[in-house]
């Protein structure tokens, strides 16, 4: 009985085990290869076959044969399935030569990223990668741009009947070799050069590259110098106060940089086509310089025009009744900063897309480790905070262009709201650069926020026996006859404090705006001091207006 139960249990467990074994080892063709009848049937047999067992050995054998100019052997590394058999022997070596030129001139090979296993399993990536640990039969090594589209340079694992699988440059890539060679192959000028100049000098550089690179740089620098001198001559012929002069001054250096980068790019494209090692370094630098120059030109022109428009209307903006203009130019300043951020972001995207920097080895390592994000966040933290603060000031209208503010003990007018600082003009034409964060996190006085009129006051230290009523009468006569006082009935004379030797008398009057208030304050002080001097010398009363302590000190110094 027990034996029967054990037999039934073993049979029950054996059925799913057999099914699982059948799934793991299916019968039929190998799943990770492209099966064909014959491989490169039209090529002549090689005395020493290439090592095509792994992706890495394929590239090594292909490049070694190419650099030795053994084009017949190098052709064996191509999948010539799309080439008619009768033409493979003639076209294969030429396609191999062009493929070698393309690789040499367009890419820098990172051998660490090319698998050295027949199944091309990627053992270097993390377990979270999509193809980590998976065999592959098709690998895109590089992406090259030509004719306004991207071409992939691929290798594929192919198996012919009765043969072992081999890795070849894929048939799709072989079809694209003519188009890629048109873009990355030697220019007509290079083909005219003598053979010794086209020979390899060191690294991946030919002798003509060693000679041409500094010459191209010098030529671009010369054209840039001519541009710089031309713009300087135009500036000298213009009025320094005009808009054209301001625009020329703003674009002087950016335009020179753009001409330098553009000249260098045109010479490279039209005359020389440098190898992959040089191009890998020059292409991102060239694109970055050119885009940065164009962005600088656009932003400086916008900034100059906006600044010229606001500065030409300084008096109008400072007019207390012109609140709409202050609101308009303040919002325009905020919009200019938003446009600046947008243009910079678009430019950064263009550089990233055109240089393909996101696919470089160093960038990928930094991004995967999270280091790049930390660096960018740390570097941009203060800048983004200042940007948001400046936009907050503009739209909350806490300080507008043309507003009179009292900040840091200084009476100023807001001239400009920038990304990081506000430019303030003091009453004596000095310029203060105030951080935008201070105007968001700290208190300040805005004297033209709602009502531009300002109650001005003058405080004088007078003797306790001073006749305040006589001063009040004198002050009242003054405010009734002064055109700068808005309301004579609102003017007051008050004793606001006293000490052991003197009392503090305050004279109050309202002016229509801060500028008029400052001038009124000076007139009040001058008038009251003159009146006190006259009262003390008139003989009608003892000279008790000025503090006694001061009178004694003056008497001792003159006695």
UniProtKB/TrEMBL annotation:
Superkingdom field: Bacteria
Entry keywords, A to Z: Cell membrane, Membrane, Signal, Transmembrane, Transmembrane helix
Protein name, UniProt field: Mechanosensitive ion channel
Entry's localization field: Cell membrane
Main location: membrane
Organism of derivation: Erythrobacter rubeus
Cross-referenced InterPro entries: EF_hand_dom, LSM_dom_sf, MscS_beta-dom_sf, MscS_channel_2nd, MscS_channel_C_sf
Bilayer-spanning residue ranges: 205-231, 243-267, 287-306, 338-355, 361-380
High-level lineage: Bacteria, Pseudomonadati, Pseudomonadota, Alphaproteobacteria, Sphingomonadales
């Amino acid at each position: 009985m027990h034996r029967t139960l054990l037999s039934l249990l073993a049979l029950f467990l054996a059925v799913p085990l057999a099914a699982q074994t059948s799934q793991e080892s299916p019968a039929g063709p190998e799943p990770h290869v492209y099966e064909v009848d014959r491989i490169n049937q039209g090529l002549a047999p090689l005395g020493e076959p290439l090592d095509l067992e792994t992706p890495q050995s394929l590239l090594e054998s292909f490049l070694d044969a190419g650099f030795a100019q053994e084009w017949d052997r190098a052709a064996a590394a191509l999948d010539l399935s799309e080439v008619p058999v009768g033409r493979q022997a003639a076209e294969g070596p030429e396609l191999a030569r062009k493929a070698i030129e393309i690789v040499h001139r367009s890419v820098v090979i990172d051998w660490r990223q090319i698998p050295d296993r027949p199944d091309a399993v990627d053992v270097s990536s993390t377990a979270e990668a999509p193809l980590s640990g998976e065999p592959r039969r098709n690998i895109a090594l590089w992406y090259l741009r030509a004719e306004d589209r991207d071409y992939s340079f691929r290798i594929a694992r192919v198996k012919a009947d009765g043969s072992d699988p081999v890795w070849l440059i894929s048939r799709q890539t072989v079809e694209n070799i003519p188009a890629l060679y048109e873009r990355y192959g030697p220019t007509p000028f290079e083909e005219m050069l003598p053979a010794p100049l086209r020979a390899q000098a060191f690294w991946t550089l030919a002798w003509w590259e060693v000679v041409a690179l500094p010459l191209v740089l010098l030529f671009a620098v010369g054209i840039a110098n001519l541009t710089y001198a031309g713009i300087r001559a135009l500036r000298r012929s213009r009025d320094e106060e005009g808009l054209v002069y301001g625009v020329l001054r703003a674009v002087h250096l950016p335009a020179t940089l753009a001409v330098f980068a553009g000249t260098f790019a045109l010479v490279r494209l039209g005359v020389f086509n440098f190898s992959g090692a040089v191009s890998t370094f020059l292409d991102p630098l060239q694109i970055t310089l050119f885009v940065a120059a164009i962005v600088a030109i656009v932003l400086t022109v916008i900034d100059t025009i906006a600044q010229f428009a606001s500065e030409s209307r300084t008096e109008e903006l400072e007019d207390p009744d012109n609140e709409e203009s202050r609101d308009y130019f303040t919002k325009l300043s905020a919009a200019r900063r938003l446009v600046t951020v947008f243009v910079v972001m678009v430019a950064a995207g263009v550089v990233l897309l055109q240089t393909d920097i996101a696919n470089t080895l160093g960038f990928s390592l930094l991004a995967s480790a999270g280091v790049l994000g930390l660096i960018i966040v740390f570097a941009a933290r203060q800048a983004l905070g200042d940007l948001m603060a400046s936009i907050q000031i503009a739209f909350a209208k806490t300080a507008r262009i043309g507003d009179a503010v009292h900040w840091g003990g200084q009476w100023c007018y807001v001239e400009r709201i920038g990304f990081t600082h506000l430019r303030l003009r003091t009453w004596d034409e000095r310029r203060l650069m105030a951080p935008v964060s201070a105007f968001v996190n700290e208190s300040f006085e805005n004297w033209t926020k709602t009502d531009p009129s300002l109650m001005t006051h003058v405080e004088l230290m007078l003797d306790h026996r001073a006749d305040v009523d006589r001063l009040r009468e004198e002050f009242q006569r003054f405010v009734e006859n002064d055109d700068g006082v808005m309301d004579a009935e609102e003017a007051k004379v008050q004793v606001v404090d006293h000490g052991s030797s003197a009392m503090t008398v305050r004279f109050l009057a309202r002016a229509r705006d801060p500028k008029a208030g400052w001038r009124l304050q000076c007139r009040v002080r001058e008038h009251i001091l003159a009146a006190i001097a006259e009262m003390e010398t008139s003989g009608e009363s003892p000279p008790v207006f000025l503090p006694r302590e001061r009178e004694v000190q003056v008497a001792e110094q003159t006695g």
